[in-house]
């Protein structure tokens, strides 16, 4: 749920990065953080364990600039990917405006991707959302690794609806901003639709 | 206005002014340092007091995460929510309460005030704030019903969006 503030002329939207454990959600945010001008970003917060596994969430506020006199801000969140943190994942999806599903392209993680995507759908439905109606993009991460599932197969299993998709290597940043831009754009178009319908 | 999917939470000038008056009064009467109001999704709605050295965006996000986690705990033991949280520090303390099950009121105070005083003043301010948010909800619903949603985004173009990323 976006927050439109006429008093401060700001609009805030929430983007959640979802995906199985160790797929690179936090790495996506870290790259965005590193490559964004200081005046456009806030502090990145990571609530992680001692071994740098996400415990609750990562948070990165971004200010993109103005549209029609309104400051546009995006709040980027990641969920903890490990299966047993499901209760936390549900909480983070509250009020989401757009979702990025980060898939781990390695063959050994194929089942984990499918399970995580199903989990995303279940958790969204529990809150009254439908993934098909949300701004949603998929990122096939870790394309630099040798043992990847072919894109066609990933697409067939994870993206039967043909939503916007990107190949990526979050470590080097390849595909990271493309993914973010795509989901941000979908969110703004959704806002436009909402505004026009009113 | 409060339900998914994809409805926006809207704040208008008039209500924002009314909210500001209430939280500034609360700041004075409770002798506290900082007050801020956060949407349950982590969006900062308003703040006042000594905020210059505070990262209010992060505070808002973490507060919402905190409330969400505590709310999850509450449900697990069969409670609807824990409406008040209190964190005690060496110098500063944080009092967090939920208003009208939707908005989070955060009061940061030090030795110049006390938990009792803060609780007392927060209770009074909460009622006033709840009224304002109720008005806001009614207003937003009316706007939507009459089709009078003056969205600044109705007329954005693809170029506007692309320019954001240039």
Could you describe the 3D structure shown?
The complex is a heterodimer of chains A (198) and B (166). By secondary structure, chain A is an alpha/beta fold. Chain A has one domain: Rossmann fold. In chain A, 33% of the residues lie in helices and 28% in strands. Chain A has 5 helices and 8 strands, in the order ββαβββαβαβαβα. In chain A, strands 1, 2, 3, 4, 5, 6, 7 and 8 form an 8-stranded mixed beta sheet that branches. The longest helix of chain A has 22 residues. Chain A is globular and about 50 Å long. The model of chain A has no long low-confidence stretch (mean pLDDT 93). Helices cover 46% and strands 20% of the residues of chain B. Chain B is globular, with a radius of gyration of 18 Å. In chain B, a hairpin with a 3-residue loop joins β5 and β6. The N terminus of chain B is likely disordered. The two termini of chain B are 33 Å apart. Chain B has a 5-stranded antiparallel beta sheet, with helices on both faces. With 166 residues, chain B is an alpha+beta fold. Chain B is built from 4 helices and 6 strands, in the order βαββαβββαα. Chain B has one domain: Dynein light chain 2a, cytoplasmic (Beta-Lactamase, 2-Layer Sandwich). Classes of the chains: A alpha/beta (198), B alpha+beta (166). Chains A and B meet through β1, β2, β4, β5 and α2 of A and β1, α1, α2 and α4 of B.
**Named CATH topology of chain A:** Rossmann fold
**β content of chain A, as a range?**
25-35%
Biggest sheet overview of chain B: 5 strands, antiparallel
The first-level CATH class of chain B is given as Alpha Beta
**Rg of chain A, alpha carbons:** 16 Å
CATH fold-level topology of chain B: Beta-Lactamase
Number of domains of chain B: 1
Give the H and E element order of chain B.
EHEEHEEEHH
Low-confidence stretches of chain A: none
What gross morphology of chain B would you assign?
Answer: globular
**Helicity level of chain B, as a percent range?**
40-55%
């Amino acid at each position: 749920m976006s927050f439109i503030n006429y008093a401060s002329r700001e609009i805030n939207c929430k983007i959640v990065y979802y995906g199985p454990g160790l797929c690179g959600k936090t790495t996506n945010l870290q790259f965005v953080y590193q490559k964004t001008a200081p005046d456009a970003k806030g502090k990145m917060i990571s609530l992680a364990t001692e071994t740098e596994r996400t415990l609750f969430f990562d948070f990165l506020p971004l200010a993109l600039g103005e549209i029609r006199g309104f400051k546009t801000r995006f709040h980027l969140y990641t969920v903890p990917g490990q299966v047993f943190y499901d209760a936390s994942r549900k909480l983070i999806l509250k009020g989401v405006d757009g979702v990025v599903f980060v898939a781990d392209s390695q063959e050994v993680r194929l089942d984990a991707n499918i399970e995580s995507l199903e989990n995303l759908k279940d958790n969204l439905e529990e809150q009254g959302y439908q993934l098909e109606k949300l701004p949603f993009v998929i990122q096939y991460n870790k394309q630099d690794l040798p043992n990847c599932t072919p894109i066609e197969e990933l697409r067939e299993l994870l993206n039967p609806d043909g939503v916007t998709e990107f190949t990526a290597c979050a470590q080097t940043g390849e595909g990271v901003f493309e993914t973010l831009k795509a989901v941000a754009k979908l969110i703004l178009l959704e806002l436009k639709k909402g505004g026009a319908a009113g | 206005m409060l339900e998914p999917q994809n409805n926006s939470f809207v704040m208008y000038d008039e209500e924002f002014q009314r909210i500001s008056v209430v939280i500034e009064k609360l700041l004075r009467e409770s002798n506290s340092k900082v007050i801020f109001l956060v949407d349950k999704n982590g969006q900062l709605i308003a703040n006042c007091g000594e905020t210059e050295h505070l990262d209010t965006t992060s505070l808002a996000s973490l507060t919402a995460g905190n409330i969400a986690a505590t709310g999850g705990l509450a449900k697990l033991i069969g409670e609807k929510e824990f409406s008040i949280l209190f964190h005690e520090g060496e110098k500063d303390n944080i009092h967090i309460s939920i208003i009208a099950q939707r908005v989070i009121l955060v009061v940061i105070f030090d030795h110049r005030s006390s938990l009792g005083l803060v609780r007392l003043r927060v209770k009074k301010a909460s009622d006033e704030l709840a009224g304002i948010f109720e008005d806001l909800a009614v207003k937003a619903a009316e706007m939507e019903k009459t089709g009078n949603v003056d969205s600044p985004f109705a007329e954005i173009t693809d170029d506007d969006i692309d320019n954001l990323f240039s």
